[in-house]
Amino acid sequence: MHLISYGPKIVYGQFYQKRSTLTRVDSLPHFFRKMRVHRNLTKGILAAKFGVSKDYVSAVEGGLKFPSLRYCLLCANEFGANPNWVKSKWAHAAIKRFSKRLMRRLRFDD
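Request: output the structure for the sequence above.
Response:
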């Protein structure tokens, strides 16, 4: 028996377990992308309206970057979503993201 671990344990589960929390169907970035496409807005137009870069909008919608609360509230205003719902959804995602990072940092993920 070896006493040395040869890498992290890989657990393959359901389809959504392998996806980022930002690209799931119930996430805010996914909702904002659907609303943007529904309104026939391009990423460039949306970026110009909000004063952010097109790359930022792409990264948020692609799940590479966690959206700022300011961006989420601007999207809520633009698409007519309830700002309180957006704030609570954002806060829930932020807490979940922070707790995962903290657990990984403290090495409790084993």
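The chain is about 55% helix and 0% strand.
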